[in-house]
Amino acid sequence: MTTQHLSPTARTTPTRGRNRQVDDRSRLMALLSDALVAHLGVVAGTHPVVLPVAFAVDADGPDAGGSLYLHGSVAAGWLGPTLEQDVCVTVTELDGLVLARTGFHHSMNYRSAVVIGRPRQVTDQEERVRALDRLVDHMMPGRAGTLPAATRKELAATAVLALPLAEASMKQRSGGASLEPGDLELTGWAGQVPLRRVADAPVTEDYVSEPVPESVLRRVAELGPA
Amino acid sequence: MTTQHLSPTARTTPTRGRNRQVDDRSRLMALLSDALVAHLGVVAGTHPVVLPVAFAVDADGPDAGGSLYLHGSVAAGWLGPTLEQDVCVTVTELDGLVLARTGFHHSMNYRSAVVIGRPRQVTDQEERVRALDRLVDHMMPGRAGTLPAATRKELAATAVLALPLAEASMKQRSGGASLEPGDLELTGWAGQVPLRRVADAPVTEDYVSEPVPESVLRRVAELGPA
């Protein structure tokens, strides 16, 4: 992956905490690779609605800056509005709790990306299939290639959307508690509590006689508590 | 905690997956207690913006259904718009990956709450202090009582918002892969990979000579990988 600068526009330029802004595209891609859930914001009439969604990324996808793929049932209520407006997709990974000597400087360590854009409904059948494979592989790398091809009925029931990654910004906080000069005169413990996501042992369905695939075991070990 | 039914309105009634809707208020409160980050959606002119935020809950707070508290710098760009419109706060915990025999039935296990409402700026000084204490204790139970009181300057720099929990809905998916009759004729492994958040050992700041407090060690052990 090459390192590129993000090109946030005014609406993806953070109004505060610019020191936490990261303009390194490879870090954005790393965050999008680590995270499993995105939060999609759409305007529904007079108010915003924010929903958790699965996603996948194709850095070389046909959209400006690469493509972020979402999918959903063609019957989903958010689908129609999403195609008629600019939406926001936010991806956040929580990395730790920051406990200062004052309540004011308590914080969290995190990485968060905000992508704003007009989604494109993916209609090309090859791109749809590739995007759906990416959505599976995003959860479990290498798995899509082991599954039967989607049926015509399954494809007809599924909408695939692509959002350009061009208008993206990322913020990140890491490290210890911010320190005011006066804090050194205070007493009390201060520090960080690192947080991470782990996987527990896979639970096999009753009707399955096959062993857990190597790819799944690798992923669990990668995430795992060890 | 008493078990109450949520009262979602049309805009917090899921349009799909009603079988995943949970109308038990104690489960909503449990999710809000487990989660550390919320995603706040506001409309910024012509498009929504979704930002990760810390939050806290007072089930007996002065707002209808209880109060969900947010805070931020008085200089934060999202603050003004947030006070002039209905907003959406979504809280999601990811509980596992669901790997089916078909790509179509791949899914995730999760709990997600959607709260919509008009935020109230908290101006009463006692409620502000209580809310800020709750925000610290949400991260680390019992910690606020061990910290010095916020200074006037800190309080002046901090905006506190309260969102009523009245208009909330919750969705939850748990268990194994959905099964079509045809899937039994397929081969291949299927199952779940449980996911959870863990804490690693606290990292003490250089300038601190005090030992890690019991309350922090308890919380780390509670979350911890053991």
Describe what you observe in this structure:
Two copies of one chain form a homodimer. Chain A folds into two domains: 10-178 and 189-195, Electron Transport, Fmn-binding Protein, Chain A (Pnp Oxidase, Chain A); 196-226, no CATH class. Helix content of chain A is 20%, strand content 34%. Chain A has helices at 25-34, 79-83, 125-139, 152-156, 214-223; strands at 21-22, 38-44, 47-53, 56-58, 67-73, 87-99, 107-117, 120-121, 158-164, 168-173, 191-199, 203-204. Chain A contains five helices and twelve strands. In chain A, the strands form two sheets. In chain A, strands 1, 2, 3, 6, 7, 10 and 11 form a seven-stranded antiparallel β-sheet that branches. In chain A, strands 4-5-9-8 form a four-stranded antiparallel β-sheet. The radius of gyration of chain A is 20 Å and the shape is globular. Chain A has 226 residues and is an alpha+beta fold. In chain A, β6 and β7 (107-117) form a beta hairpin. The longest helix of chain A is centred in the middle third of the chain and has 15 residues, at 125-139. The two termini of chain A are 28 Å apart. The relative contact order of chain A is 0.19. The interface between A and B is large, with 97 and 97 residues. β11 (191-199) of chain A pairs antiparallel with β11 (191-199) of chain B, so a sheet runs across the interface.
Summarize the structure.
Chains A, B: One of its GO terms (molecular function) is oxidoreductase activity. With 226 residues, the first copy, chain A, is α+β, with helices and mostly antiparallel strands.
